[in-house]
Amino acid sequence: TGYITIDSGYKNTGATKSAITFLDGEEGILRYRGYSIEELAEKATFLEVAYLLIYGELPTQSQYENFEHEIRTHTLVNEDMRKIFEGFPVNAHPMGVLSSLVSAMSAFYPDSYDDKAPDSTETHIIRLMAKLPTIATWSFKKSQGHPVNYPKNDLDYCSNFLHMMFALPVEEYKVDPVVSKALNKLLILHADHEQNCSTSTVRLVGSSKANIYSSISAGICALWGPLHGGANQEVIEMLEDIKADGGDVAKYVDMAKNAKTSGFRLFGFGHRVYKNFDPRAKIIKKAADDVLAKLGVNDPVLEIAKGLEEAALHDEYFVSRRLYPNVDFYSGIIYRALGIPTNMFTVMFALGRLPGWIAQWKEMRENKEPIGRPRQIYTGATLRSFVPMSER
Ligand code: CMC
Q1: Which tens digits make up the pLDDT trace of 310-360?
Q2: Name one GO biological process term (predicted).
């Protein structure tokens, strides 16, 4: 069986070759299929980026129109899925609901688990892209006691999501282009990040030939954790706590320095790969300023975030460990300004990451990668004899 080396957390283990996303943690570089994240976030639509990630090239006009059209024709969700949804308690966390319903999709589309029907994969990809926003908005509507909105297919992808979230049957709802543009940018920034925890989960689950819905559902569960995508919710809750506590950022920096004893980490700080800065955080910080100004929102939490960043960046503990704000540090502040509630932040991350998960699942299948099956070094008892219960 050969020599086994342990690499806890896979800090130095490459699990696959991939042509999707390039990331240089020292230089703070992130590129999807060769295009810089800065340029994509500025110039592209989220669906263009999704197409790029999934199919490898930017779409031509007709490829784009076709992709968008396909997605539009699949935005409705089977009404029987609504019955499953209605069984959830009103305070169910939207991430638990999302992962369950995506998993349930495999039962609604049984050809997804028939590996002899690979032709249907394209349709499953479209279904996931089309239905995830619809499902995501249900939890919010239920939490408000409002009826769900059916998709409005003359709207673009981001505007349709906003419509399903915020339109009410009693008054006309017009999507604010500032809001829809900001959402487009955030989704692009989240769209892929090579072999992170949730993506590795999607690939590992998919490597057993599990269907695409189950694989993506597993990715959603992995993303939910507070050390991964769940950090965006934790950040806002932390900033709120600091505000309620008088805004003393230095106190929280001190607590985080003693993370080992206090158990408190600065959420939205630190990254496994980025050691000088997270290029996504740079873009988001600027976007937070722009969006809040354009929407005329004055959120005191933004000032606390900036103060906290400033204090941490001048602190030896954070400097020596090369801990910088990551993508989750400022994203919640923008989501909040867009009217999205805190417990939906990680759902927003999932909507953004979906094309990345799909692209990575597809690449893994096309490259015919073997089943993922790490080894271990056994540390338990050596052989011993069974002791009857009466003698234990
Ligand atoms: N606050 C205080 N100390 C920290 C923090 C933090 N946020 N992050 C890392 N450290 C310390 C850690 O205690 C350790 O110190 P020491 O060397 O004395 O043992 C050192 O920095 C290295 O940390 P690590 O936990 O070994 O690093 P890692 O690569 O295993 O973890 C991380 C990376 C992102 C999980 C971690 O930095 C963290 O927990 N950050 C807070 C949660 C967060 O913001 N997550 C979002 C990540 S980015 C987007 C995403 O993935 O969703």
Answers
A1: 999 999 999 999 999 999 999 999 999 999 999 999 999 999 999 999 999
A2: tricarboxylic acid cycle
Nearest atom in ligand 1 to the alpha carbon of residue 270 is 37
Tokens of 144: 């408000």
pLDDT 10s digits, 18-71:
999 999 999 999 999 999 999 999 999 999 999 999 999 999 999 999 999 999
Atom 31 of ligand 1, residue of closest alpha carbon: 272
Q: Which residues contact 1 (CB under 8 A, 6 or more apart)?
A: 375
Q: State if residue 224 touches ligand 1 by the CB under 6 angstroms criterion.
A: no
Q: Which atom of ligand 1 is nearest to the CA of 349?
A: 52
Question: Which two three-digit tokens encode residue 202?
Answer: 């999607």
* Domain 21-227+343-366 top-level CATH class: mainly alpha
Average pLDDT, the chain: 95
Question: How far is C-alpha 19 from the geometric centre of its chain's CA atoms?
Answer: 20
**According to CATH, where is 1.10.230.10 located in the chain?**
231-337
- Atom 45 of ligand 1: nearest residue by CA position: 227
In the chain, which segments carry CATH 1.10.580.10?
Answer: 21-227+343-366
Q: Which of 192, 271, 278, 299 is catalytic?
A: 271
Task: Evaluate: CB of 272 within 6 angstroms of ligand 1.
Answer: yes
163 is catalytic: no
The set of residues, in sequence order, having a beta carbon less than 8 Å from that of 389 and lying 6+ positions away, is none
- Asked whether 231 lines ligand 1 (CB < 6 A), one says yes
Q: Please indicate whether residue 328 is annotated as part of the active site.
A: yes
Residue 210 reports pLDDT greater than 90? yes
Q: Calculate the alpha carbon distances from 30 to 23, 24, 280, 325, 328 in Å.
A: 5, 7, 8, 16, 16
How many angstroms separate the CA atoms of 250 and 332, rounded? 21
The three-point CA angle 146-223-235 to 5° equals 75
* pTM reported for the whole predicted model: 0.96
- CATH class for domain 231-337? mainly alpha
CB of 94 within 8 A of CB of 343? yes
* Distance of alpha carbon 225 from alpha carbon 216, whole angstroms: 15
- Looking at the predicted structure, is the pLDDT value of residue 1 above 60? no
Q: Tell me, what's the pLDDT at 118?
A: 67
